[in-house]
Amino acid sequence: MKKKVLAAVLAASMCMGIAAPAMADVKIAFSQIGQESDWRTANTDSINGAIEEHEGWELIYDDAQQKQENQIKALRNFITQGVDYILFTGVVSTGWEEVLAEVNEAEIPLILVDRLPDCIDKIDYVAAFGGDFVEEGRRQVAWAGEYLKQQGRDSEDIKVAIMEGTTGASAQTGRTEGNLAALEDYPFMEVVAQQTGNFTRAEGQAVMESWLKSEDKIDVLIAQNDDMALGAIDAIKAAGLVPGEDIIIVGCDSVKAAFEAIVAGEMNCTVECTPLYGPFVVETIEALENGEEMDKEVVHPEEGVYDMEGGIDLGSTTSIKAADVIDERIY
Ligand code: AHR
After folding, report:
1. Rounded to whole angstroms, how far apart are CA atoms 75 and 80?
2. Which of 85, 103, 214, 254 is deepest in the core (most CB within 10 A)?
3. Measured from the CA of 252, which atom of ligand 1 is nearest?
4. How far is the CA of 88 from the CAs of 39, 54, 74, 78, 289, in angstroms?
5. Rounded to the nearest whole angstrom, what is the distance from the C-alpha of residue 27 to the centroid of ligand 1?
6. What is the pLDDT along the chain (331 residues), one digit of tens a residue?
7. Which residue's C-alpha comes closest to atom 2 of ligand 1?
8. Does the C-beta of 162 come closer than 6 Å to ligand 1?
């Protein structure tokens, strides 16, 4: 409800001597992709929790169950409901121009989070926040390359499998770009398998099972999220191999389950992609409510890399020993 209307309702209630109804004056709608991973659950909890806890704010939440058509429907619904802000992340990066133009025409401030649409330069948005997916992908391969060098294995012919996220998602295209670019610095690493595991544990397990049958040898698994890495670990164990030793496993996200796998010696590294967007969303909407303008620059949170021993120099950061910080992980 808009502030002027709310004030009128409050004034009328007071004149009539009746208790004022509790009403939200800022309606915030969030179109979420689905719940494919531990990361996504933590992301939903962080954003929804921050909005719900904020006095005077109402959350209108839609889970699109990984379907673009559901997200498009949800966005049109938000427009019809006349919400005050829309938070949006796209399951894939293409196909949003028309519906986001409708959001712009309705003059609803659009806040982009996580996976950004490829039409970002053609639409109006008030703020954008999300992981630097290309850098995350670069860090994954750089970690494996530096670790192999440290082990004296850079004279071997190292076979690499890349398990990609949902095809067409900016998290998949960006991380793949970063993975492939970084491989150029490590000529002893060769990609022998590359396929999507759709960012889920179940598909990660299934893809690894099939690779273990079709490939003669896999030395390194680069999984573009931790859920797929954890699914792959189950498949590796079922095949009688030792994850973390026979196959070096590098995940992405840095969820608690990945920290536990690293501490147990079954996974080697996880590159962080933080899901904790709640504080950014609150700060942004509070600033906009106060009439401030936000910078259009995409804000990337500061992120780390966690592994078994720590100390691997990746240029932009140095890895941290997961066991030292596992208790601080809240998701
Ligand atoms: O867009 C962020 C990615 O989406 C996370 O890495 C992954 O776990 C999630 O499903």
Report:
1. 9
2. 254
3. 6
4. 16, 19, 10, 11, 19
5. 26
6. 333 333 343 344 334 444 444 456 999 999 999 999 999 999 999 999 999 999 999 999 999 999 999 999 999 999 999 999 999 999 999 999 999 999 999 999 999 999 999 999 999 999 999 999 999 999 999 999 999 999 999 999 999 999 999 999 999 999 999 999 999 999 999 999 999 999 999 999 999 999 999 999 999 999 999 999 999 999 999 999 999 999 999 999 999 999 999 999 999 999 999 999 999 999 999 999 999 988 889 999 999 999 999 999 999 999 999 999 999 999 9
7. 171
8. no
The verdict on the CB of residue 171 being under 6 Å from ligand 1 is: yes
Q: Which two tokens stand for residue 8?
A: 């009128």
Dist. CA 213 → ligand 1 center (Å): 27
DSSP, residue by residue, 267-330:
--EEEE-----HHHHHHHHHHHHTTPPPP-SEE-----EEESS---B-SS-B-EEHHHHGGG--
Listed residue (117, 65, 168, 140) closest to 319, CA to CA: 140
Q: Give residue 26 CA to ligand 1 midpoint distance, Å.
A: 28
**Whether residue 139 has its Cβ less than 6 Å from ligand 1:** no
| pTM as predicted | 0.92
Enumerate domains of the chain plus CATH numbers: 22-131+275-289 (3.40.50.2300), 133-274+304-328 (3.40.50.2300)
Q: Is the CB of 129 under 6 A from ligand 1?
A: no
> Distance (Å, rounded) from C-alpha 167 to C-alpha 241?
29
Ligand 1 nearest-atom number relative to CA 169: 1
Which amino acid, one-letter code, is at 239? Answer: A
